[in-house]
Amino acid sequence: MNPSRHPPYPGRFITFEGIDGAGKSTHIDYVTGLLKAKNRQVVLTREPGGTGLGEKLREILLHDKMTPETEALLMFAARREHLADIIEPALRRGEWVLSDRFTDASFAYQGGGRGLAREKLRQLETWVHPHLQPDLTFLFDVSPDIAQTRLEAARSPDKFEREKADFFNRVRGEYLRRAKEFPERFRIIDSSRPIAAIRETLKTLIGKLD
Ligand SMILES: Nc1ncnc2c1ncn2[C@@H]1O[C@H](COP(=O)(O)OP(=O)(O)O)[C@@H](O)[C@H]1O
Ligand SMILES: Cc1cn([C@H]2C[C@H](O)[C@@H](COP(=O)(O)OP(=O)(O)O)O2)c(=O)[nH]c1=O
């Protein structure tokens, strides 16, 4: 049970983070399978998105030009809906929520990437989810060069994916800084390795959860 939660929910909240192309989407399905094999009820979701309104905001966020402040506010607006409609009800029911990104992404992208002050993001975090943090965060860590090569082979880029290596170096740096700040919940996964090797790591880590 996560003691930082009030009230304490019986479910578990696991988030998947990393720069674009790091392999989150590839591995979230694998982890879902591992948990289902352990007879856990799993809710698979993503940010921005996860709700009807959240998915509409995602379309705007991924394609429209806006100030960094607007970007942060819309990310947290989508998150508020996500928490109220999906995440907290599932945790109350005792289910395992796996989310492709959460608030660490706002610190990494809007903070590290766009340069917004960390304190502003902390204020939004306190406003939107004062008593809830993930139980566990997998940080898929890889260089922007490798991620870019993988993405070029896979799909056409959205607004974020068109950013340059400098931007992703700052995003990666902020993710790693947060992993140091919250070592009890972060697990850094070396994502430069082949998919099979990463699966082995994930299997070991998931096997340790009760
Ligand atoms: N460890 C890996 N080695 C090689 N290719 C990978 C690896 N992980 C993911 N990929 C490929 O890279 C691309 C981006 O992966 P994806 O899971 O969509 O990343 P993300 O969700 O983090 O943006 C996909 O085509 C995927 O098959
Ligand atoms: C949740 C979140 C995502 N993002 C960005 C990161 C991603 O580039 C984009 C969409 O995330 P994601 O769903 O990971 O995109 P994809 O499936 O194409 O890899 O939104 C932020 O900038 N801040 C946030 O708080």
From TrEMBL:
Record GO terms (molecular function): ATP binding; dTMP kinase activity
Keyword hit for DNA-binding: no
The entry's keywords: ATP-binding, Kinase, Nucleotide biosynthesis, Nucleotide-binding, Transferase
Residues engaged in binding ATP: G18, I19, D20, G21, A22, G23, K24, S25
GO-annotated biological processes: dTDP biosynthetic process; dTTP biosynthetic process; dUDP biosynthetic process
Enzyme class: transferase
Entries under NCBIfam families matching the protein: DTMP_kinase
Domain Thymidylate kinase-like: 16-200
Role this protein plays: Phosphorylation of dTMP to form dTDP in both de novo and salvage pathways of dTTP synthesis.
Pfam family, one: Thymidylate_kin
Species the sequence originates in: Oxalobacter paraformigenes
Annotated catalysed reactions: dTMP + ATP = dTDP + ADP
GO cellular component, one term: cytosol
Family: Belongs to the thymidylate kinase family.
Protein name: Thymidylate kinase
Documented EC number(s): 2.7.4.9
CDD domains cross-referenced by the UniProt entry: TMPK (cd01672)
